[in-house]
Amino acid sequence: MNEQKLKIAVLVSGNGSNLQVLIDAQKTAELPIEIVGVISNREDAYAIERANQAGINVAVLSHTPSGKRMKISTFEQHALEQLKQWQPDLIVLAGFMRVLSGDFINACPAPMINLHPSLLPKFKGLDTHARAIETGETYHGCSVHVVTAELDAGAVIAQALLKINASDTAETLQNRVHELEYKILPWSINLIAKGMFANGDKKLDLNNLPHPTCLPALPWKLAFVE
Ligand code: GAR
Question: For this structure, is 140 an active site residue?
Fold first, then answer.
């Protein structure tokens, strides 16, 4: 895996600004990745436009042929077929807003990571920025974690944090956290691409995260100078 590009599939639901960061990093070869495909569960996600612009395969799995919005089980069935075709080494949830079943996660042909806008285990789920302000947190940020059947609960690989300002609103905080996300997601994927989480056979194994003795225990907490 060290010399080869890491093949990644990206699942999205919205704007796709994190997808864009990965597309740009692929283009400039800043990251040793090949985005083999993007799956969107929404037909109106701007992420689709970003992937199309970059000439990346896109599967929009939002409606059935009869025009009904897909149930999650139908989405999962189609997504699984698509992922098996693309054969990614890693599946990245970048702003993917539906909860996936344990059966789907276990059946996926590659390990999966998620980008979540909070310092997990704090603020699982939605509205993380508003909740961080309401509860009077000093710090907030984002996490990259392994996806398991339990929502936002898999092993955290890395977190990036910032100090909440007295003047922050949910919106300004979201914007500030986005800037951290644009650093921590590629940073984490780079570690994975470089084989940091590979076992002896160089096979990516995020369910059994090794702790190299030369590094501190996970999660790695990064504070970027703003
Ligand atoms: C990101 O802030 C990501 O952390 C969040 O959605 C946003 C997507 O932005 N993900 C979740 O809330 C997952 N529960 P983007 O579409 O511009 O990359």
Answer: no
**53: exposed, middle or buried (C-beta count within 10 Å: 0-12, 13-18, 19+)?**
exposed
> For tokens 């909070």, what's the residue?
118
Q: Per-residue pLDDT tens for 93-149?
A: 999 999 999 999 999 999 999 999 999 999 999 999 999 999 999 999 999 999 999
Question: Ligand 1 center to residue 70 CA distance, Å?
Answer: 21
Q: Return the closest-CA partner of residue 111 out of 130, 132, 135, 83.
A: 83
The active-site residue, picked from 63, 116, 140, 145, is 116
Atom of ligand 1 nearest to the CA of 96: 13
Q: What angle do CA 12, 17, 19 make, to 5 degrees?
A: 55
CA distance from start to end of the chain? 33
Burial class (CB in 10 A: 0-12, 13-18, 19+), 137: middle
- Please state the atom number of ligand 1 nearest to the C-alpha of residue 174: 2
Q: Residue 158 — φ and ψ, nearest 5°?
A: -155, 150
Does the pTM of the predicted model rise above 0.85? yes
Q: How far apart are CA 118 and CA 132, in angstroms?
A: 8
Distance 55 CA to ligand 1 centre (A): 22
Peptide bond just before 212 cis, omega within 30 deg: no
Right CATH number for 6-223 from 3.40.30.120, 3.40.50.300, 3.10.129.10, 3.40.50.170?
3.40.50.170
Task: Judge whether 27 and 51 are in contact, CB under 8 Å.
Answer: no
